[in-house]
Design a protein that fits this description.
about 500 residues; alpha+beta; Transposase Inhibitor Protein From Tn5, Chain A, domain 1; 3 domains; seven-stranded mixed β-sheet; about 25% strand
């Protein structure tokens, strides 16, 4: 076993304590003895040596024998992730699915959370942690291929073990690759604009913000078909009474027709005729429509409309504070672009400089800049406004909460795509790709749980996830003549472990 020396129910623990005496800093081996009756710990200390100006321990003399210090290794951040994997029973599901390699797959997922990027750096990362594991590059490729062969078994077991959700969020992205050995690669609509074969990666998360399921489909399959295929799988595991929270890319007569057997909510694109009619009807906020939501004033108006014979409900939200913020940001950027165009005085570089804002400007051959007032007015009319549509009767605040929660889902999805490291993907075969995505999916589950605990403890108001992991990495294992001890736990680290629902008595190595 590779990582089962983390003991959760323990009586004693040892770590290194620094103490300053008359201007010099000394190191002691502190042993804490836990009293289960009094619910507190007592500490015994043994002198190790003096600390030099670089933070290294100069061991004490004992006759002609010196204490041998083998090194110090990252502990706190790795321990946290492995503990959360145990809390969520990810370790047991992995062990059930991959009897031999499950621990290494979990370690790869921990690496994705702590040090996302090229997997060529995994070996270097492992060498500085307390884990006694060696994973050369060739072994990682073999491991990913092994994981890919049974990735669906893990995801279905994870789905079966997850708590039932009443709302799910779906997103999809395209992953391009230049591999010739991956049979899933097909040409289709590319969200990145690359003209390369791709696969479609669909991800489903619950209202709890925990990833539930993912799957990979050939790149030519339309988004709505990918969603329907995944919903069929969810239905086999009893997840049927749900609300789909979708992005505006799913809005079309055909898509909505196929989704009508499910409850859904999605934003209505402003470019549609229906949206323009609703904006016109709701253009003037009425006093009786004023509502408070999360300490913000907004005006809410609801109604219904017919879409090619299908009746749908809409809720229009107008947030004056958001409107002012968006106007300020819009005109600040528009003015900056006008100034930049005036300085370059080169008509061939206008489009490149203006970018998206070119639609709001008119520039003559003499470099005279004027604004397109109608285009700007249309943009201003949508600021601070959101239109949500649904085939269910939802309360205005419930629909808004569902939609706003999607921001965290999209953040998780962006993290997953970003942490894939390189796009186009250079993995060579279908099984290796599936294993790579499985490791990323497990990492996303672990990260989402850490973020949940951070939100509930409010520690996210003082530090980011990345900052938290860096702080915990400073809690290290020191090896002294074959024995291992933890460095002293700082006040800030205690606060983090408390927020992560881990007691100090749990922090033990064996």
């Amino acid at each position: 076993m590779l990582i089962n020396y983390i003991v959760i129910t323990v009586i004693t623990m040892s770590y290194v304590v620094h103490q300053k005496i008359r201007g010099k800093v000394y190191a002691y081996e502190a042993t804490g003895e836990w009293d289960p009756v009094r619910k507190n710990s007592r500490q015994k200390r043994k002198y190790i040596g003096r600390i030099d100006e670089n933070g290294n321990i100069i061991p004490k003399r004992s006759g002609i024998k010196y204490t041998r210090i083998d090194g110090a290794y990252d502990f706190g951040d790795v321990f946290l992730i492995l503990r959360i994997a145990r809390d969520l029973k990810i370790d047991s599901i992995l062990a059930e699915t991959f009897s031999e390699d499950w621990e290494k797959i979990l370690i790869l997922a921990a690496n994705r959370v702590i040090l996302p990027g090229s997997m060529r750096l995994v070996g270097a990362w492992l060498s500085r942690t307390y884990l006694d594991v060696d994973m050369p590059g060739r072994r990682i490729s073999e491991l990913l291929s092994t994981a890919g062969k049974r990735s669906m078994e893990f995801t279905t077991r994870w789905l079966r073990s997850s708590e039932k959700e009443d709302a799910i969020y779906f997103d999809i992205t395209s992953l391009e690759s230049y591999s010739v050995k991956n049979t899933f690669l097909e040409y289709g609509y590319s969200r990145s604009g690359r003209d390369e074969p791709q696969v479609n990666l669909g991800l489903i998360m619950g209202r709890s913000m925990r990833p539930l399921f993912y799957d990979v489909y050939p790149g030519s399959i339309p988004d709505v078909k990918t969603l329907l295929n995944m919903l069929t799988i969810l239905g086999k595991y009893g997840i049927t009474a749900i609300i789909l929270v979708l992005d505006r890319g799913f809005y079309s007569i055909r898509n909505i027709g196929e989704l009508m057997k499910f409850s859904f909510v999605m934003p209505l694109p402003f470019r549609t005729v229906v949206a323009r009619d609703i904006l016109k009807e709701c253009s003037r906020p009425k006093q009786e429509n004023a509502r408070m939501h999360d300490h913000s004033l907004m005006y809410v108006q609801s109604g219904s409309f017919d879409l090619d014979g299908t009746s749908l409900n809409y809720i229009h939200y107008y947030d004056p504070e958001r409107e002012n913020r968006e106007k300020k940001k819009f005109f600040e950027r528009l003015t900056e672009i006008e100034d930049e165009i005036s300085r370059i005085r080169d008509v061939t570089k206008v489009d490149e400089t203006a970018g998206y804002f070119m639609k709001y400007l008119r520039i003559t051959t003499g470099m005279v800049i004027t604004r397109r007032s109608k285009a700007i007015s249309r943009r201003l009319n949508t600021m601070g406004r959101t239109i949500l549509i649904s085939n269910s009767k939802l309360e205005w605040d419930e629909a808004l909460d569902l939609y706003r929660s999607r921001d965290r889902v999209e953040k998780g999805f962006r993290d997953m795509k970003s942490d894939l490291g390189t796009l186009p993907m250079g993995v060579h075969g279908e099984e290796t790709m599936q294993g790579y995505l499985l490791v990323q999916f497990i990492a996303l589950i672990l990260e989402s749980e850490m973020r949940r605990r951070m939100r509930e403890s409010k520690i996210n108001e003082r530090m980011t996830l990345h900052e938290m992991l860096i702080e915990l990495s400073k809690l290290r294992v020191v090896r002294l003549e074959g024995s291992r001890f933890l460095t002293e736990i700082s006040k800030r680290q205690r606060e983090v472990f408390k927020a992560m629902e881990i007691g100090e008595e749990d922090l033990v190595i064996k």
